[in-house]
Design a protein that fits this description.
The complex is a heterodimer of chains A (about 290) and B (about 350). In chain A, about 70% of the residues lie in helices and about 0% in strands. Chain A has one domain: MetI-like fold (Orthogonal Bundle). The longest helix of chain B has 18 residues. Chain B is built from 11 helices and 11 strands. Chain B has a 7-stranded mixed beta sheet with strand order 6-7-8-3-9-10-11, sandwiched between helices. Chain B is of the alpha/beta class and about 350 residues long. Chain A: Keywords: Cell membrane, Membrane, Transmembrane, Transmembrane helix, Transport. Chain A: Its main location: membrane. Chain A: It is found in: Cell membrane.
């Protein structure tokens, strides 16, 4: 190397993550989804500050009033402000969505990695259990588990986490199998990596993209599941507000007071749609084929 | 010179299953290979694709366990070490892969990749890691500023340099290069071969070079082992084997080097299936000299410096044209002199 050459300026190093973010930001619907998701997260966190009324405050003089300036979404059968209840309900729904999916990841990913990398009977046992769980419809299993654990929001989240985990077992097992066949995993072994380090330092970072996509779609599903469980009385317990339990109590007034079901229903739809849009955008942004240059 | 690496009777068969998952036979990838590599020696292993070279390389590092045989590495029988003792031993033996696009973790920066062996084997304190990585990168001809970049930002030759830096990081006693240049462009091949031979010379590395490219092997190897269908058919000092081959297969292999000049008849037919290797001498199905005995008796590799596994080794006619020692490496040599010219190595990819 001769000293005569002036060092050429290097463009900033681009990590795969940074490139994925760039691609994501070009995806308009996905960004819209992200904005809505962030908005609802903020609403959930700031509920005590932004809710105009106490969501539990009943009033005999304002039963089932249609939307008005005082009550933007009307009042329910006990005279409680629907907007305040929708805002507070965001807490239950977002928490149920996010925490139960985090739980599902925590259960599913290590098991999937173990199955994929260890192979043999370990793989056979884990995969068969996951298959068995997947053969039962998602909601049926969640309802059965939640009913077994008893009606409470925490139990509903546990039920959803357990029920959603086999998807992550499958996904991470498949990705681990792919990774196992690559040279860089063999290289990791040849360098002297212990198996757990290979799994968490080499395999895991490489399977984050599909997990992230799956997780964002699973949050949408978990929110629906939480609403369904609450609707059935297995999630958030009255009088505490949750979108599902609001739908439950409003079904008797579907014709007389449609706003009672429309607002929580539309909210669920918007949030679920936002998570799905975000997930689709992530899928496109994290597509490994787009990374090949 | 004492043997650093000694393999004895290595056998590896991969089961082949039919559509129903029943065992339908086995690929005899490596079938009774013994060899030794002395401290500071460069052994070239040559052969056609599918002859078991890469499997042998992985067996030598015990990355796959042999069905039979032992590998002794500076005194330890690798096949009997516990998993953790073997991992610790990996500090002293490293592997360079063929495909530099596949051998680097896509989610690790160059610095992380090269520092990994340092960390795994606690070679330098964390505080000195960065300096050590920079040192290693310049050792392989890469600018240390490139340490923060990701593998996808590099060309094949640069990636192979990174892989070499990673292999050097733990200051191993032995490096096995599994076709380290055959995935690269010819011009880059010459650069990387030069780099390897410089490193071997400067660091006194013990190196096993697995390659099908006789020119490359001739350039760096002290000793050569020729493989055919999972067995070593000829082994000896590089000079002797490559200029006075005794085995008909080695002769044919040398004659097939383009621009070689020797007009030995090309070998006919394909390599027989390793699932059902022919009895007797494995090469008899394609050997122009084969006699009845070759079909039944498996020839032994024999003894001495230059060993050959052929019944007729002493009675074969001399090669049609005595291969010109230089001819095979000429193309490579010219390229090397061209690319060795001092100059900056390509930095950032375009």
């Amino acid at each position: 190397m001769s000293a005569s050459t002036a060092p050429t300026a290097l463009p900033a190093a681009e990590s795969p993550t940074r490139r994925a973010i760039k691609r994501f930001l070009r995806h308009r619907l996905a960004v819209f989804g992200l904005v809505v998701v962030v908005l609802f997260v903020a609403v959930a966190i700031l509920a005590p500050l932004i809710a105009p009324y106490d969501p539990l405050q009943t009033s005999w003089s304002r039963i089932r009033k249609p939307p008005s300036f005082d009550h933007w979404m009307g009042t329910d059968e006990n005279g409680r402000d629907v907007l305040s209840r929708v805002i507070w309900g965001a807490r239950a729904s977002m928490m149920a969505g996010v925490i139960s999916v985090l739980g599902a990841l925590a259960i599913g990913v290590p098991l999937g990695l173990l199955a994929g990398l260890a192979g043999g009977w370990v793989d056979a046992v884990i995969s068969r259990v996951a298959d068995a769980m997947l053969s039962v419809p998602f909601l049926i299993l969640a309802i059965a588990l939640a009913a077994f654990l008893g009606p409470a929001l925490e139990n509903a989240m546990i039920a959803i986490a357990v029920t959603a985990s086999p998807v992550f077992v499958r996904l991470s097992r498949g990705m681990a199998l792919d990774a196992k066949a690559t040279d860089w995993i063999e290289a990791a072994r040849a360098l002297g990596n212990p198996p757990w380090r290979t799994a968490f330092v080499h395999v895991l970072p490489n399977i984050v993209p599909p997990l992230l996509v799956q997780a964002s779609l699973a949050i949408a599903e978990a929110i629906i599941a939480e609403a369904a469980l609450s609707f059935l009385g297995l999630g958030m317990q009255p009088p505490n507000p949750s979108w599902g339990s609001m739908l439950n109590s409003s079904q008797r007034f579907l014709t007389q007071a449609p706003w009672l079901s429309i607002f929580p229903g539309v909210t669920i739809m918007i949030v679920v749609l936002a998570f799905n849009l975000m997930g689709d955008g992530l899928r496109d942004a994290l597509d490994p084929r787009a990374d090949k240059t | 010179m004492s043997a650093l690496l000694e393999a004895e009777g290595l056998v590896k068969r991969f089961p082949v299953r039919d559509a129903l998952g029943r065992r339908a036979g086995a690929v005899h990838a490596v079938d009774g290979v013994s060899l030794s590599v002395a401290q500071g020696e460069v052994l070239g292993i040559v052969g056609e694709s599918g002859c078991g070279k890469s499997t042998l390389g992985r067996l030598l590092l015990n990355l796959i366990t042999p069905d039979a045989g032992t590998v002794r590495f500076s005194g330890d029988d690798l096949t009997r070490l516990s998993a953790s003792a073997l991992r610790a031993r990996r500090r002293d033996m490293q592997l360079i892969f063929q495909d530099p696009f596949a051998s680097l973790d896509p989610r690790m920066t160059v610095e992380q990749a090269v520092a990994e062996p340092l960390r795994l084997h606690r070679i330098v304190p964390r505080a000195q890691e960065r300096d050590r990585v920079a040192e290693l990168l310049s050792r392989v001809g890469l600018r240390p500023e490139l340490a923060r970049r990701w593998p996808h930002e590099f060309s094949g030759g640069q990636r192979q340099r990174i892989a070499i830096a990673r292999a050097l990081a733990s200051q191993p006693k032995l490096i096995i290069g599994d076709e380290p240049v055959s995935a690269l462009d010819v011009s880059v091949q010459a650069q990387v071969v030069n780099l390897l031979s410089d490193l071997i010379r400067d660091l006194g590395l013990t190196f096993v070079l697995i390659s099908h490219d006789l020119g490359v092997v001739r350039h760096v190897a002290d000793r050569v082992a020729v493989m055919y269908l999972g067995r070593i058919v000829e082994q000896g000092p590089a000079e002797d084997v490559l200029s006075a081959p005794k085995h008909p297969y080695t002769r044919a292999l040398l004659a097939a080097v383009p621009g070689h000049g020797a007009k030995a008849p090309p070998i006919e037919g394909d390599v027989p299936s390793p699932i059902a290797p022919p009895p007797g001498c494995r090469f008899h199905t394609r050997c122009p000299f084969a006699v009845e005995r070759c079909r039944t008796d498996q020839p032994a590799l024999g003894d001495g410096l230059h060993r050959v596994a052929c019944h007729l080794a002493d009675s074969l006619p001399p090669p049609a044209t005595r291969p010109d020692r230089l001819a095979g490496g000429e193309r490579l040599r010219r390229l090397q002199s061209f690319f060795r010219a001092p100059g900056p190595l390509p930095g950032a990819p375009a």
